[in-house]
Design brief:
Layout: H1 3-13, H2 18-42, H3 46-55, H4 62-73, H5 82-94, H6 102-111, H7 122-127, H8 138-155, H9 159-171
Helix pairs in contact: 1-8, 2-3, 2-4, 2-9, 3-4, 3-5, 3-6, 8-9
């Protein structure tokens, strides 16, 4: 595990206000509410609903992700990346198993309530001081996830909440 990444994440978390921590602590609960609506519309499980939301997330802003997931769950036409739509369709049957990418799979698990799930996306890569354009490999993904878990232990938050906190602070007003 890269201590440099852990230090960068710790430095970001050290700037958090109580309001930031509250926002990070509730973010996934609010996302779970969306997944519950998606699941209800599909007459499916929370796992399947969260997986649909996660499947439609790559290259989408959260508001667009929510709108597309809800439309998909109601059988309305959804425009987006064909791979996202393929994953969403597979998610209805397979849940988490439809999501082969580490980011989308972790995102679905975090949305569904797994407090140990850590999502590493563009903002988390940037927060670690890495270049999101170059991307990262699976080993680097795992190292960044371990860094978030390490920070979570130090600040006594769940890994999921710590990741949300770092993401919120790194993204800022962008």
């Amino acid at each position: 595990m890269s201590s440099a990444h852990t230090k960068k994440y710790l430095a970001i978390v050290s700037t958090a206000t109580p309001r930031h921590i509250e926002e990070a602590s509730t973010w996934y609960a609010e996302a779970q509410s969306v997944a519950e609506d998606v699941a209800e519309n599909l007459n499916a499980s929370l796992e399947q609903g969260a997986s649909v939301v996660a499947a439609l997330s790559p290259r989408e802003r959260w508001s667009s992700n929510v709108a597309k997931a809800l439309a998909f769950s109601m059988g309305k036409p959804v425009v987006g990346l064909s791979m996202n739509l393929t994953m969403a369709k597979a998610s209805v049957e397979l849940g988490f198993d439809a999501l082969k990418g580490p980011k989308t799979n972790a995102f679905a698990r975090a949305i569904a309530g797994d407090s140990g799930a850590v999502v590493i996306d563009t903002w988390m890569i940037r927060a670690a001081g890495m270049d999101p354009i170059k991307g990262i490999n699976l080993g680097q993904y795992r190292d960044l996830s371990k860094s978030v878990v390490s920070v979570a232990k130090r600040v006594e938050l769940t890994p999921r909440t710590t990741q949300a906190l770092i993401w919120l602070l790194a993204r800022g007003n962008a």
